[in-house]
Amino acid sequence: MIPPSLWNQYTTRQIESQVPSPLFSEDARAWCPWYTGGKQIHGGVGMKNGVMFQGFEWHCPEDGSYYREMAERVEELGGSGITAFWLPPAAKGTGVGDVGYGVYDLYDLGEFDQKGTVRTKYGTKAELLELVRRLHGAGIQVYADVVLNHMGGADGTETFLAVKVDSGDRNREIEGHREIEGWTRFDFPGRGGAHSAFRWSHVHFNGVDYDARTGEKAIFRILGEHKGWNWGVSQEHGNYDYLMFADLDHAHPDVQKELFEWSDWFVRETGVDGFRLDAVKHIDHAFMKDFQGHLRARHGQGFYLVGEYWHNDITVKEEYLAGTEFGIDLFDVGLHYHLHQASVKGADYDLRRIFDDTLVKEHPGMAVTFVDNHDSQPGQSLQSWVEPWFKESAYALVLLRKEGYPCVFYGDYYGIGGEQPQDGMKEQVERLLKLRRRYCHGEQEDYFDSPHRIGWVRRGEEGHPHKLAVVVSNREEGPLPMFVGVEEAGKTYVDRLGNHGGRVSIGSEGFGEFPASPGSVSVWMEEGLD
Q: For Ca(2+) 2, which residues are the binding ones (predicted)?
């Protein structure tokens, strides 16, 4: 039996993956081939003012109609300015109602009779491929939601050595080693070896949360030669490798090989343009670095990757960016929480701080900005829903600025279901999308001088000469002086969102006194523009 001390040693591969220090020295920047110095090269590659659309919410119907219904909405989305579509997880889950994050078989996209169904929650493989075809026909890129952290719904149990660990500190063993019976055997009998003959067993996992022999629910680390928690993960709970179900051991060479081969098959089979990578803070960053390198070597440097690293500490995000050689964009969770707090605190929130310590401020070329998503919506484990009164302002802060790659949430566009339904704000979002597409060009100047009223100006550029001035207020109405250019002198500006009925005359020196109604946002532009 290998002593417990061995579990805490880095593998040779992990040691070699460590980043230079100091983290963002000039040497580190040169060492990271994907570091862009703030120049966006991932989000919306080849697209001006690209916008991602998260195409689902947690409570989409379970009747298999999703792919067909979204195929009918492709033209509408493309016309509104959406340039990329984030699909829900396409792989067969633990049952017909699985949202997709309880992944059972990565190779079953709604093609085989497994887990009581051929189709997934969203439809059949043929319907998925037709949706991708229509999106591409409309000039919209497609990003697949990929779950590589865990597997659920195993076909059988196995007996193996394991040790129970403290859920608050997964590095601390709380009892001796013993045999347990875990759900770790994946044979995929319904697929019969199609697409891949690989079979999963306990040697390919490093943790489970249930002992079928005793019925005990706890976190068990699986024991074996050179096996332990992966260390290039979040250090929450001591080590946050384990999240749920049977946890993949990304240091195992067979696991790496199978996931690489699956990714090649999936991209060839579906034709997607990128991956949204689920739960990356629970996956060894050394594996993710190798995985992104493999994908781009096989499918081109433009293959897009964005990771869900749910943490609002910018230093933690920076460590991950460096550890993955700046090859994977990240969702700006810190900005999301700022938007949530601004909506909850109202007039007590200092709007000048809304971009402090956010990814979009520190690394704008690596940030996917968003207001809400399926995890933050009401009733979910990470509920942090931006209050409706502030929602339009939040989307203005995401869609009308120069930095970041914005993502619009299905639930904010079409609405969400479940026990706490919310109406969508499709009309408001479409207005902002139109403004982004037509008028958000050129340099940007911020006016963040008041805790309750902030604004910015987009200057325009060759081919897009019109100016745009945005004001967000969370308390009393009042003018915000902003410079739009001496060439605008004498022009009259109006609020394109219709939230303020006044007019602003631009003075001889190119300044205007731009107001916003209390708790509202206004986008001021020259009167008469379409």
A: 249
Q: pTM of the entire structure?
A: 0.91
**Which one from 57, 98, 158, 308 is the annotated catalytic residue?**
308
Residues 6+ apart with CB under 8 A from 517: 473, 477, 499, 500
Neighbouring C-beta atoms of residue 172, cutoff 10 Å: 11
User: How far apart, in whole angstroms, are the C-alpha atoms of residue 101 and residue 152?
Assistant: 9
- Amino acid letter, residue 58: W
Q: Could you tell me the two tokens for 207? A: 């943790």
The answer to whether 108 is annotated as binding is no
Ramachandran region of residue 418, left (φ > 0), alpha (ψ -120 to 50) or beta? left
User: For residues 145 and 275, what is the distance between their CA atoms, to the nearest angstrom?
Assistant: 6
pLDDT at residue 458 greater than cutoff 70: yes
171 labeled binding residue = no
pLDDT (tens digit, 9 = 90+) per residue, 185-236? 999 999 999 999 999 999 999 999 999 999 999 999 999 988 999 999 999 9
CA 347 to chain centre: 29
Q: Is 278 a catalytic residue?
A: yes
Close Cβ partners of 48 (under 8 Å, ≥ 6 residues apart): none
Structural domains in the chain, CATH included, are 4-17+151-248 (2.40.30.140), 26-149+253-439 (3.20.20.80), 444-526 (2.60.40.1180)
pLDDT of res. 47: 63
Which of these is catalytic: 57, 158, 278, 290?
A: 278
Q: Among 427, 407, 411, 428, which residue's Cα sits nearest to residue 83?
A: 407
Binding residue per annotation — 363? no
Helix (H) or strand (E) holding 320: helix 314-323
Q: At what angle do helices 388-399 and 426-439 cross, to 10 degrees?
A: 20
Known binding residue 145? Answer is no
pLDDT digits (tens, 9 = 90+) for 463-484: 999 999 999 999 988 899 999 9
pLDDT computed for residue 451 by the predictor: 96
Q: Which distant-in-sequence residues (6+ apart) come within 8 Å of 498 by Cβ?
A: none
pLDDT at position 478 is: 86
149 is in an annotated binding site: yes
308 is catalytic: yes
Place of tokens 């001035």: 469
